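Retry 2 of 3 after timeout on previous attempt. Resubmitting structure tokens to design endpoint.
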């Protein structure tokens, strides 16, 4: 009996060796969530109440979209560099000022809050089609090109009239012609709606993820939105083009006569008062619809700096939109050159960031999770429990040898004890 008990104890000890006790889990601690500071209200001018169509619900802004350009731009309130003077009060619901060359954002109010663009959307059309169209190309206006909202801004193109692409760009940027917008979108993409699709693709490439165009002109349409930040991205792309800079600073131009239609020519003037009244003005774009109210984009240079201002949802009283833009430019020009609250992303940058995780996941070799360490004997027990005969047979043989060996040793000791006892007798 002693031999059997000893054999069993030996086998159990052998199998249990090397199986570590599980470590006690450390108690989980949840750090206290930081308390977000309330947004700083934007300085606002009192504006007269106006009647306007019901505002459509904007698409939800994701945390990722709200943080484009820097975490400081994610809120709906005012953000300015530390120690800077307060910006001027304006009627615009959102605005942003940035450096055209460095891309640094100098200040903003609700940079990523969705708004309605009105005719400032024509800048997206320019950023999309300027490089595609030969300015000397002459095209014929169609009836579809002139299919615009009655009473909306137009150059006065005629069905069957022949116009150069350069004339169309001047009509778009000086007179905010919706007829010119339709024709340029058609010439650049085959149809106005195809042009809108190209505009949305260009917005995505520029990083303007909150911008969605429905019309090439900025006439209101369901689901059409942008933001002050996105407008700055689009404006920066426009001002990088020499042709755009020339068009935007043109004070007046002649729309050619159409002899075949027995119609004379006429002159149009630039509606952006900034180019006449602001020293160093580079141009920009005005916009207005009953829904969007006044929107504005303007740029100027001073002391080797080129700044751009964008604003949405403004009222023309007591201060007109371009004047609000001029006041914000004055404020920003007084800031130090290294002042910044964020930055304008570069074209293609967001696409590259989105592609990096996918490329990293494809390049990383697949790894299988390692089983928990149980020690040699613990692993053997686990495999025996799973019915693995490649382990069961050797272990059974080892146990048999061990038990037999122990039994033989005990039997030999017992025999010696008996012989010694007989000699004593």
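Retry 2 succeeded. Sequence:
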């Amino acid at each position: 009996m002693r031999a059997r008990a000893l054999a069993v104890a030996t086998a159990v000890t052998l199998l249990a060796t090397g199986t570590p006790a599980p470590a006690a889990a450390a108690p989980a601690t949840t750090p206290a969530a930081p308390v977000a500071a309330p947004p700083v209200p934007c300085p606002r001018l009192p504006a007269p109440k106006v009647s306007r169509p019901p505002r459509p619900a904007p698409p939800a802004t994701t945390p990722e979209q709200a943080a484009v350009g820097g975490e400081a731009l994610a809120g709906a309130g005012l953000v300015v560099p530390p120690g800077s003077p307060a910006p001027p009060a304006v009627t615009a619901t959102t605005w942003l000022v940035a450096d055209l060359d460095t891309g640094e954002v100098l200040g903003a109010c609700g940079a990523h809050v969705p708004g309605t663009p009105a005719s400032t959307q024509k800048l997206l059309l320019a950023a999309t089609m300027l490089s595609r169209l030969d300015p000397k190309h002459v095209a014929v206006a169609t009836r579809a090109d002139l299919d615009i909202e009655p009473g909306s801004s137009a150059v006065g193109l005629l069905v069957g009239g022949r116009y150069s692409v350069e004339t169309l760009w001047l009509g778009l940027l000086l007179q905010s012609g919706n007829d010119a917008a339709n024709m340029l979108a058609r010439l650049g993409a085959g149809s106005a709606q195809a042009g809108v699709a190209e505009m949305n693709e260009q917005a995505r490439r520029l990083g303007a993820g909150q911008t969605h165009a429905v019309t090439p002109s900025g006439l209101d349409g369901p689901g059409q939105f942008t933001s002050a930040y996105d407008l700055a991205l689009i404006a920066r792309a426009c001002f990088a083009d020499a042709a755009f800079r020339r068009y935007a600073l043109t004070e007046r131009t002649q729309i050619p006569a159409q002899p075949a239609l027995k119609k004379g020519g006429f002159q149009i003037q630039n509606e952006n008062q900034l180019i006449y009244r602001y020293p160093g003005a580079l141009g920009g774009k005005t916009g207005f619809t009953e829904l969007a109210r006044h929107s504005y984009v303007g740029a100027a240079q001073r002391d080797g700096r080129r700044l751009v201002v964008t604003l949405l949802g403004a009222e023309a009283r007591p201060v007109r939109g371009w004047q609000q833009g001029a006041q914000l430019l004055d404020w920003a020009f007084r800031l130090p050159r290294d002042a910044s609250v964020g930055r304008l992303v570069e074209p293609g940058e967001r696409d590259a960031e989105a592609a990096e995780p996918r490329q990293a996941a494809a390049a990383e070799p697949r790894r299988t999770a390692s089983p928990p360490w149980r020690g040699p004997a613990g692993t053997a027990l686990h495999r025996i429990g799973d019915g693995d005969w490649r382990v069961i047979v050797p272990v059974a043989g080892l146990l048999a040898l061990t038990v037999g060996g122990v039994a033989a040793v005990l039997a030999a000791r017992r025999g010696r004890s008996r012989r010694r006892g007989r000699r004593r007798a």
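Attempt log closed. The chain has 13 helices and eleven strands.
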